[in-house]
Automatic annotation (TrEMBL):
It comes from the Bacteria. GO terms for molecular function: NAD+ binding; oxidoreductase activity, acting on the CH-OH group of donors, NAD or NADP as acceptor. Residues 5-184 form the 3-hydroxyacyl-CoA dehydrogenase NAD binding domain. InterPro entries: 3-OHacyl-CoA_DH, 3-OHacyl-CoA_DH_NAD-bd, 3HC_DH_C, 6-PGluconate_DH-like_C_sf, 6PGD_dom2, NAD(P)-bd_dom_sf. Residues 187-283 form the 3-hydroxyacyl-CoA dehydrogenase C-terminal domain. This is 3-hydroxyacyl-CoA dehydrogenase family protein. PANTHER family: 3-HYDROXYACYL-COA DEHYDROGENASE FAMILY PROTEIN (PTHR48075), 3-HYDROXYBUTYRYL-COA DEHYDROGENASE (PTHR48075:SF5). Keywords: NAD, Oxidoreductase. The keyword Disulfide bond does not apply. The record marks H141 as: Important for catalytic activity.
Amino acid sequence: MSRETVTVVGAGTMGHGIAQVAAMSGHPTRIYDVSEEVLKRADEAIRRNLDKGVEREKVTAAQRESTLENLRFESYLEPAVTGSDIVIEAAPESLDLKKNLFGEIETYVSASAILATNTSSLPIGRIGEDLNHPERVLGLHFFNPVHIMALLEIVRATATSEDVLSRAKAFGAGLGKECIVVRDVPGFATSRLGLVIGLEAMRMVEQKVASAEDIDKAMTLGYRHPVGPLKLTDMVGLDVRLAIAEHLHTALGSEAFRPPEILRTMVEEGLLGKKAGRGFYDWTV
């Protein structure tokens, strides 16, 4: 596999997960975030994941060391992306933020560099519409935890070139992912299906149909989902799911995506899930 240089923009949960699998696959990988504290937490999280892998004999000691050697942490954008072959943006779900980021990134990278976004719902075409080379923009939607989940959803915008799509598929396969290709439509395939189940599960909690634990158990044992929809919501972040639900409710005009009141209330109260310690579950115990 080609050792393309990869830069991940954003060192949060998804960002450091993407950086870890890229580095584990032999790519020289840079991970950028404006916050030194976020970069420090990302480094610690990657090391914990690798240590657990070694402990469970899923990762060798040599693989752990080579992964860490492939990683470079940057708090300035220009040195982080200059010379990169693939830039994967994993910033918060804000269209303006992503457009501005890509506009700045384009000034530092070569014309052949792929610009990918990990967005789970925002339109890829809109993100790249103001760039000089929108044909090199596409979605690479990874799933949490990135080092475990096998799927990579590749989202092709109208402007995305065949060459960029082909390179993205080869990159995903090299990471050991099963790739699916979907059109640039609201919610793509996975967010549209996954979110509607999650929102209905929230309504069931709201209506006291069953506890969050039992609703999740119904899906993990009854439908063989690896994680229940409410625990998954906690892992993704309730604020993230609210933003996606609001976007899809507007874009698709479907009541299935109207955010339930329990979701709005919990976000207002700071119960954002795992990252905040509390959500539908208590993550402090």
